[in-house]
Design a protein that fits this description.
By secondary structure, the protein is mainly alpha-helical. The chain has helices spanning 11-27, 30-38, 43-77, 88-120, 130-138, and strands at 2-3, 6-7. It contains five helices and two strands, in the order ββααααα. Helix 1 runs antiparallel to helix 4.
C-alpha cells in the first residue's frame, strides 16, 4: 500500500485533495484554506490544499498590488480641471489590467482542473516552484 515513504491516500483523501484544487477556481483561497484547516493532519490533503492556497494568495497579492499601482498612477496624473479629459494611458492600461486578471483566472482554472485530476488519482503532483514550498510546509 505504500509508494516510497508516502502512504497510499484513501478515496476520501483523494476527494478532499481534488476539492481543494477545484474550489480554488470558484472560491479563491477560501476553499483550500478551509480544507487545509480541517485536514492539516493528513499530509496528502494538506499538500494539495497548501499548493492551491499559495497560488491563490500569490495571485491575489499581485492583483491587488497592480490595482494599487494603477489607481495611484491615475490619482497623480489626473488633470486638475474637472472638464479636462482623462489621460489616454487609462484607456491603454485598463484593458491590459483586465487581460492580466483574465489570464490569471484562466491559469487558476487550468491549475485547478489539471491538479484536481491528479489529486483524484492519488498523485503527489507538485506545481512548479510552489510545490517545493508546499512540501516543506506540510513536511511531505
Amino acid at each position: 500500500m505504500e509508494t516510497g515513504t508516502k502512504p497510499e491516500p484513501t478515496p476520501d483523501d483523494r476527494t478532499l485533495a481534488m476539492l481543494a484544487q477545484i474550489l480554488q477556481a470558484v472560491s479563491g483561497f477560501w476553499g483550500p484554506l478551509v480544507i487545509y484547516i480541517v485536514k492539516r493532519d493528513n499530509r496528502f490533503v494538506a499538500f494539495h490544499a497548501v499548493q492551491a492556497l499559495i497560488w491563490q494568495i500569490g495571485y491575489m497579492v499581485v492583483a491587488f498590488g497592480s490595482m494599487i499601482v494603477f489607481f495611484t498612477g491615475i490619482a497623480f496624473h489626473m488633470p486638475a480641471a474637472n472638464s479636462a479629459p482623462p489621460p489616454k494611458a487609462i484607456f491603454i492600461a485598463m484593458p491590459l489590467i483586465w487581460l492580466f486578471f483574465m489570464g490569471g483566472w484562466a491559469v487558476s482554472i487550468t491549475l485547478a482542473i489539471i491538479y484536481g485530476i491528479k489529486a483524484n488519482r492519488g498523485e503527489w503532483a507538485a506545481y512548479p516552484v510552489i510545490g517545493r514550498w508546499a512540501r516543506r510546509i506540510v513536511g511531505a
